[in-house]
Specification:
heterodimer, A: 542 residues, alpha+beta, 8-stranded antiparallel barrel, 7-stranded mixed beta sheet, elongated, B: 164 residues, two-stranded antiparallel ribbon
Chain lengths: 542, 164
């Protein structure tokens, strides 16, 4: 279990700017992410990242001091209850100053019908509810992005939100209690490898960064954030196999006007999307590959997004045109989109294909390795005819060039070209044969079509993959000056690990086994040109 | 005829000899001059050139019920009395195949190796004469129906420390 205050996750300048909010409201937050799976569940990939992103946006734009946001990752039940008690103590301290206090509780992780799943432990929602009721804030904001793993892997269950809100909102005091839940009672919530996070939290954070500011007044209210997260979540999940997910908002707030959640206009670094730009847009941090916003920009509006100063890549779709721009958001500056950006057009395709290509483009791989070839009857028979093999300690060097194209999130088709076995044999005696037939050697190459399945690890930085395929083999063998050609087939299988170094550059290592019965002698004996090999290489993705 | 000391069949890919320090200059005797075996005298029956493992690699097919051919070979060094013969052959049906070493010296007895059946595997036999010969006649004899193909035949002097 990792406990971390959010201080390390954002830049000091941004925090100081956000901390200088003019209102006299004290804000405290407990932000929890739990990737851990209980019995029968699959570990989540992005719940911790969701929590980090929420923590970041609260500090950067929500007016929360760094020390007042407690980021709790993969806790057990006892630790979560202790953190809730700590939240209550801090709220109580704030109220002693006669200040209005806002308390926020965010949770992303697995859940079952009436409990949060924290690894092997279940924490009943009633205990969480009781704890939050006891916090005593002027306004308590609860955001639940709760997951339940059942027949569908890494799906998020709705029952916790429904159960929690139904039992808590109506029973709390009149100061104010808000529950924002990731889905309705009959739906599943989803994580997305494309977004590298929960679909709901991703859009909620995008909205809080400014995409939800419909009034263009520089602040994002609870209503705006909810409407934006609702629309984008429904739109995104409608394109998935699990179907639509409808976030819920339940309010019990008395005596308050609009509840401001973030103030993007006060950010030290903003990206301005001007009028005249109408596009579906995805913003990705160039250094980490993290998708920071996915939004629809209307023609007649101006939109300002508060961003961490960094280099970004924007992919925009306008009609049939897809454009990729790279630009830098400087500190203490408003960067207007399109000014000083390096842009290039990318090929257009069907809408569904674009969704996949945007985040999982084609990749090109180049590798080199060592092959341990087979020794079979063909080879041993050469010894009987007076040949000795040239020694090759450490195996044979082989190369491979491949192109991978995604078919689905975790499934790609791979076309690869590489060499197979190359061997050299010399006569053991030349006395009566002469040099004309002194050597016999062959070389071979293959073209392979494979299907590759991969599993992301380490927040998408790594991926385990396995692939299998087949294709044609070409071999040429030479005895003295007599050269022959033959064509055959081969079967190949590989497993390996990819590591991302940059958003567009990675490395990989893989082990392979190949069966290629393509070299036949006049006696009908066939040689397998394959073998087992280990390869390392680089991978460039678009 | 003195019995051979040893006869070993080796899977191909093993070396021609088990101890290269003791074997000198193995000579391959099956070479072709056109469609005739270079240096060989066909004493009985007939010999035809046939392809073996490669379309440019030839073997000698011994046809007829009795086929005999011989090769006069002078050892490069005169003090060797042990000789290692290797043979790769194939036989259809089960004709008998023999390789004999017949010294030119009248006082020395010749030796015979009855070649086991095998399908293009490397066979090796060591002949031990009583004394170093001045010259040798290497004779290959096939008896009985069915064809025998000789693909590789080498002979080498052996200089063991004791015996062969």
């Amino acid at each position: 279990v990792e406990v971390a205050v959010a201080a390390a996750l954002m830049q000091l300048a941004v925090a100081l700017a956000a901390a200088s909010e003019p209102d006299d409201v004290a804000r405290y937050a407990l932000v929890v992410g739990s990737n851990r799976a209980g019995p029968g569940q699959e570990p989540l990939q992005y719940a911790d990242d969701d929590a980090r992103n929420v923590s970041d946006v609260l500090v950067e734009l929500g007016g929360y001091d760094e020390q007042d946001v407690l980021l709790l990752l993969d806790p057990d039940a006892e630790m979560l209850l202790e953190a809730l008690a700590s939240l209550a103590e801090r709220v109580a301290a704030g109220r002693e100053q006669d200040e209005p206090v806002v308390a926020t509780f965010y949770y992303s992780g697995h859940a079952r019908a009436s409990a949060l799943d924290l690894g092997g432990e279940e924490l009943p929602l009633s205990r969480v509810r009781d704890a939050l009721e006891g916090v005593g804030a002027s306004l308590t904001l609860v955001v639940l992005d709760a997951c339940q793993s059942g027949a569908v892997s890494r799906s998020k269950g709705v029952e916790p939100a429904e159960d929690f809100s139904g039992n808590s909102v109506r029973g709390l005091d009149t100061e104010g209690f808000v529950v924002l839940a990731s889905s309705s009672a009959s739906e599943l919530s989803q994580e997305s490898d494309d977004l590298q996070g929960s679909t709901f939290t991703h859009h909620l954070v995008s909205g809080l960064r400014g995409a939800a500011d419909r009034e263009h007044d520089g602040v994002v209210t609870l209503d705006e954030a909810y409407v934006y997260a609702y629309d984008r979540t429904v739109y995104t999940t409608a394109q998935t196999a699990l179907g639509q997910q409808h976030p819920r908002l339940e309010l019990d707030v008395v005596g308050h006007g609009e509840t401001v959640l973030t103030r993007p206009a006060r950010s030290s670094a903003t990206l301005s999307l001007p009028e005249g730009l109408a596009a579906e847009m995805v913003l990705v941090r160039a250094d980490t590959g993290t998708v920071v916003a996915e939004l629809h920009k209307a023609d007649q509006e101006t939109l300002e997004l508060a961003l961490v100063p960094a280099a970004y890549i924007a992919i925009t779709k306008r009609g049939d045109t897809i454009e990729r721009c790279r630009f830098v958001v400087e500190p203490d500056t408003t960067t207007t989109y399109g000014e000083g950006a390096q842009c290039s057009r990318v090929a257009a395709g069907s809408p569904a294909a674009k969704l996949a290509r945007r985040h999982h483009g084609a990749a090109f791989e180049l590798g080199v390795g060592s092959l341990r070839p087979h020794s079979d009857q063909f080879v041993s028979q050469l010894g009987a005819f007076g040949f000795l093999e040239e020694g090759r300690p450490g195996g044979q060097v082989v190369w491979e060039a491949a192109a991978a194209y995604p078919l689905y999130r975790r499934l790609s088709v791979v076309a690869s070209l590489g060499d197979l076995e190359e061997r050299v044999f010399f006569r053991s005696s030349l006395a009566e044969v002469g040099p004309a037939k002194a050597a016999y050697h062959w070389a071979s190459a293959r073209l392979t079509a494979s299907l590759r399945g991969s599993v992301p690890l380490g927040r998408g930085r790594f991926a385990l993959y396995a692939q299998a395929g087949l294709g044609p083999t070409v071999v040429t063998d030479t005895l003295g000056s007599v050269r022959q050609w033959a064509v055959g087939y081969h079967l190949a299988s590989s497993a390996g690990l990819q590591a991302g170094l940059l958003p567009w550059l990675g490395a990989f290592g893989q082990a392979s086994a190949t069966y290629a019965p393509s070299l036949r002698n006049e006696l009908g004996v066939v040689h397998d040109l394959g073998g087992v090999s280990a390869t390392i290489g680089m991978r460039v993705s678009r | 005829v003195r019995a051979a000391l040893s006869a070993v069949w080796l899977a191909g890919g093993c070396a021609v000899s088990g101890n290269s320090d003791l074997v000198k200059d193995p000579s391959s005797l099956l070479a072709w001059c056109g469609e005739e075996l270079c240096g060989w005298k066909v004493e009985e029956g007939s010999v035809e050139q046939v392809t073996t493992w490669h379309e440019e690699e030839f073997g000698a097919a011994l046809e007829g019920d009795l086929t005999a051919l011989s090769y006069e070979w002078t050892p490069p060094q005169t003090d060797a009395r042990c000789f290692e013969v290797t043979l790769t052959s194939r036989r259809m049906s089960f004709p008998q195949l023999e390789v004999s070493l017949e010294p030119a010296d009248e006082e020395l007895q010749g030796l015979v190796w009855s070649v086991p059946h095998a399908d293009y595997m490397l066979g090796m036999h060591i002949f031990e004469l009583d004394a170093p010969p001045q010259a040798l006649r290497i004779r290959v004899t096939k008896r009985g129906g069915g064809e025998a193909v000789l693909a590789l035949l080498t002979v080498a002097e052996l200089f063991p420390l004791e015996g062969c």
